[in-house]
Amino acid sequence: MLNLMDKIVSLCKRRGFIYPGSEIYGGFGGFWDYGPLGVEVKNNIKREWWRDIVYNRENIVGIDAAIIMNPQVWVSSGHVEAFSDPLVECKKCNHRYRADKLDSQVCPDCKGELTEPKRFNLLTEVYIGTTEEAKKRAYLRGEITQGVFVNFSNVLNSSRIKIPFGIAQIGKAFRNEITPGNFTYRSREFEQMELEFFVKPSKDTKKIFEYWKNERLKWYTSLGLKKENLRYREHAPDERAHYAKFAEDIEYKSPFGWSEFEGIHHRGDWDLSRHKLKYKDTNSGEEYTPWVIETSGGVDRSTLFFLLDSYYEDGKRIILKIHPRLAPFKAAVFPLVANKEDIVNKAQEIYRTLKKSGIIVTWDDRGNIGKRYFSQDEIGTPWCITVDYNTLEDNTVTVRDRDTTKQERIKVEKLDEYFKNKLDGDFV
Ligand code: GAP
Q1: Strand, helix or coil at 120?
Q2: Verdict on whether the full-model pTM lies above 0.90
């Protein structure tokens, strides 16, 4: 019997969500490639996040900083120093401990076997320069965050935002993880979606922290993650990252246990002070170093958890009940039979019209209708449109709902409006 994780890994490979990276050369530990359906889910998650964090608010702007920065950034941020402790990692649950702070020979959390201590820097080194002699060591960013801090003054000087305000970013980060594992959960290359929210230091910062913590959990549930599979977990003081005054994780109840996939961090003035950056209030002239509340989510971990959370079986039927806004295709169009020219032409016309109007649709004319439903359910397509003999008479089609399997007859000219209503006014 396959467990849920094996089923998801198999579905991802079989249907084109996620493949092992460089697979034809035997793969490469901790690297994954997203296929035609996976890239859609991932893009949908990122689009929804950007909409919620940037477009739906008034005091947040976005940036897209370079992956490779002046190596001094990582010295100032503390990552060069703080990521080179001697570490051991549990081979079972991947929890990592400072070797010098651990009294036990086994993992304190799950009693799993520990790796040998290693002086370990999570930053991935790269060498930049044209000649061997002139090559300079730099790093692939270990968190996307530093790109925001080094552009703090640029953003302030080139826009009209004032404290409190936020800078949002989505992008790739790289960590030389000792033991990548649990499919994409712990990768060496992954994507983060982060907000750095700058505030004037005060006692009220805790309230802002609570606000963002709630907003982020609400966002996940609004896109269908089940409440009972989510929880917050506060970091113990010795577990916090070097920059954090205070931190809480949002965890998901995964097949491999409760697992972090977003961190809410009170970074205080750690980063701006280290980069020697200040804020000047243009009204009062007051100058100070703002505090930062950060929400840092993993796009790959979210993708994995959205897939796990939406996986259902009904006998042999697999249904991915993923939120329609995250589904790779919103609808599939079928001609009832593939050998009747009138029906195929009409179905093609509907398919092309929907595509033109911006709705992401797919086409399927293989096998019988039952098999096509089966195939679309497995990849989470919320609605299937069948063009049949009646369509030629009265210009109506059957629309079948993935979750209820109920069918209704809809006028072709109303399809656009029908999907717009279902998708809260937006097609993508
Ligand atoms: N800027 C803060 C920061 O990077 P973090 O808790 O180290 O904080 C934030 O990372 C999120 O990035 C995690 O909650 C997770 O979703 C994602 N992440 C971190 N390491 C990862 C890895 N090795 N593989 C996949 N995702 C990872």
Answers
A1: coil
A2: yes
Instruction: Give the separation between CA 315 and CA 20, rounded to whole angstroms.
Output: 29
Question: DSSP letters of 242-256?
Answer: TT-SEEEEEEEEETT
Atom of ligand 1 nearest to the CA of 144: 1
- DSSP class of residue 55 equals I
SS3 25: helix
Nearest to 376 by CA among 402, 399, 354: 402
What is the 157 CA–ligand 1 centroid distance (Å)? 30
- The beta strands (E) that lie in 63-174 are given as 86-89, 96-98, 118-119, 124-128, 136-140, 165-174
Residue 388 token pair: 């049949």
| Structure letter (DSSP) for residue 90 | B
Q: How far apart are CA 377 and CA 332, in angstroms?
A: 10
Which of 89, 193, 296 has the most ligand 1 atoms within 8 A of CB, as the residue to mutate? 296
Angle at 12 between CA 182 and CA 64, to 5 degrees: 75
| pLDDT value for 104 | 86
> Would you say the CB of residue 251 lies under 6 angstroms from ligand 1?
no
Structure tokens at 338: 């593939």
What local confidence, expressed as pLDDT, does residue 121 receive? 83
* Ligand 1 near 192 CB (within 6 A): yes
Instruction: State in Å: Cα 118 to ligand 1 middle.
Output: 21
Confidence of residue 84 (pLDDT cuts 50, 70, 90): low
- 299-309 vs 36-50: helix axis angle to the nearest 10? 110
